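Hey, I'm writing a tutorial for new members on how sequence and structure tokens pair up, and I'd like a real worked example in the thread rather than a made-up one. If someone can provide the structure for the chain below, I'll link this post from the tutorial.
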Amino acid sequence: MKNYILILVAFLSLCLASCKKESSSGTTHVSVKLTDAPGPYDAVLLSIKNVVIVTDKGEQTLAVGGGIINILNFRLGKDTLLAAQDIPAGTIQQIRLVLNSTGNQVVIGGIAYDLTTPSGQTSGVKLNVHDNLTAGVDYTLTLDFDAAQSIVLTGNGKYILKPVIRAVANAASGALKGVVTPAASYPKVYAIMGTDTIGTVADSTGKFYFPGLSAGTYTVNFVPVSPYLKKTVSSVVVTNGSVQDMGTVTISQ
């Protein structure tokens, strides 16, 4: 009886985990990175407070840590992670890069000059973007900062930051879903690619869902409860930016 109770608890835990994954399928994980095109300066120092992503589902504020960033350190394909967070899936309408009021400078000939960025310190530097974020898919949002065009010298010798930034959203993963019948088979489902195995459990309606999968070809194993038989589906292809639907998978007795 004790062993039976332990098995039952373990199974319910897996079911809850599966339900949690299913309920979170309306979200997507977004990583915001910053890279730079070269400019004729010794350094361009930005103190970034947060990144605001505006979608058709509302505003999501991603806090940025790490202090002041010299963006010239991230040229020629290099980048730095500003923030990462799960947000509701939907269509991006705007991205705002909000700067702190101090710590923004340009260094020329070894001399540091303050950069005035009125809009960047209040409502944020606004970037209009129109990209769809698919539920269950991870995205990398790259902010490509053009230092050469972003810094303006005024007639009174002050430097103003008027950021020229290109924002690109790239899917970094895909997702996999399907429905098992009969639902009473309650299978554990394993997506296998090479040495990597990711598991979940079909819910009470037979649905299963794998968010954030690396692109590639998977073997999907179904391990149901007795008296149902194990089943394997090979050559299931997952691509970045899309959800692969396996449709209905029938488990036999």
